[in-house]
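Q: I have two molecules that I believe assemble together. Could you output structure tokens for the complex as a whole instead of separate predictions?
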Amino acid sequence: MMLELTHVGCGALRDLSLAFGPGHHVVLGSPGDGASVLVELISGLRAPARGQVRVTGKDPAKDPKVRAALGTLLAHEPTVSAKTVKSWVEQVVATRGDPRSGAELLEEMSLSGWATRSPGSLDSAERRSIAMAIALAVQRPSVLALFEPLAYLPAVPQKLVLNRIETAAAAGACVLSVTASPRQASRLGPSAWILDHGRIVRRTGAPLAEQLCPGTAPELLIRVDSPRALLARLAECPAVAGLRWNEGSNRGELRVSGADLGRLSLDVLRATRDANVRLLSLMPALPLLESVQAADAGLARGAYERALEVARGAGRARAAPPAGPGPETSPAPAAPSPGARS
Amino acid sequence: MTALVGGARLGATRLLHGRALVAPAVAGLFVVVAAALERVVAPSQAADHALAGATFGLALPLLAFVTLDRATGRARLDAAVWEVARYGGDRRQGAAGLIGVSALFLGLCGAALAALAVIVTRSSGDATLARDLLASAWVGLLGGLCYGCWFALGSGFGAAGRGRTVALLLDWVLGSGSTALAALWPRGHLRNLLGAEPVLHMPQWSALAAVLALSLGYATATLWRVSR
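A: Yes, here they are, computed for all two components at once.
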């Protein structure tokens, strides 16, 4: 495995075990769940209090060669002491042994405009943009660990980031994108690992939008110029099971739910045409991270209670006196812990 | 090698900008005022008192503490050189560069502070002025180097390098005596080099050896603690 964390405890992370090979992997979790610490550990900025972090079999906190082949974007990029952005990038390429010049690298990411600025004059998001450019510029990276690769990057086009991530993953790198936004996660990949309270609790199936909160009806977010006119039409649509509209807060925004996202979308399009309203946007309404984590807690609780029920049934069967030859009882399966690890 | 230079450059950038130079200036002013007062109170022993008290007893250790605080960016030593280590630089080499520049800076400051104390307490016509000036500056240089290494070791411990405070207290409390407890800290040996009470009745040449050995020991222990 290219990236391996074994029983890692550090900050919010609790006994986290992970192993990722080449490809693009998305982790959905907030900094409070340990998402930012996860990237810091992979970058080698800090060593775990417990457990091991291994990148291509070596500890990034202790091996400079491993760090040279890493591309990382932290939640809070620290300030640097270089005089200009260009000299900052020049120092990085010199350390990495990259034949390209700093100006070339900045040009590739459309950041040449900042070359003469002092790093001290950059705000947090601008510093992240430069750090992202540096992270994506690693030649033949082993691992790319990126915290919020599509957010707080004012000058880096998202398309370019997605393109670079795809290219690196296709070339055999292990790319780990960490985000707290289900929407960003759905843009980054077809499935995601859910990080909750310092542990990976589940890997969603694909498509991500439908698998974040399994068991709940999919929802569509509609923005129109005249929602009141559309509401009456939508109420008549057979695929629509629920409607939500808050006139006070989101005037032009409606949420509709139904069992089938495809049929729901078609009904919405028909309704907007019939109601003669202007459709501004139509997209799957993704749940908030808190809702995803609540769904996971519910799933774990359900699984636990089912296993407990099976175990009780088996206990009762053993306690009852045998009434003659009958079918053998199978041993009860072990109850999974509510916070199952990957 | 690049990391060593990078660490040294990082240290120099942090230590040589405008605001960072306030601490040496304040230390210099303090030494001048203290030396002038000593000269007024007891002219015959003013130089000894100003050197052992205000300069090496107070100004230099505090300046070393503040300098390492600045050089490490108020962080632990391994985190202080993250900028150099992040993209493949050797963290240990980076730390060596940072410590080297800080110790050299403190050595020069120590020499300057000692020279100031001697100049202020002696009259210009004093025949021994040049000899004492040189000897004191030499002890100041050694003292600065030794304190730089000592506080670098302290910076390797605790969250945000809080070990520096412990290092300051250890030197202050244990180093002030002349028993075996004082042998591990710079204060007692520097006092001996200035001609005051020795630690464990050691001769001056052994105090010099002790200061050099302590500096080397502190630096080695510091770098040993920093992972690559």
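A: One point stands out. Chain B touches chain A at residues 2-3, 6, 9-10, 13-14, 79, 82-91, 227-228 (CB under 8 Å).
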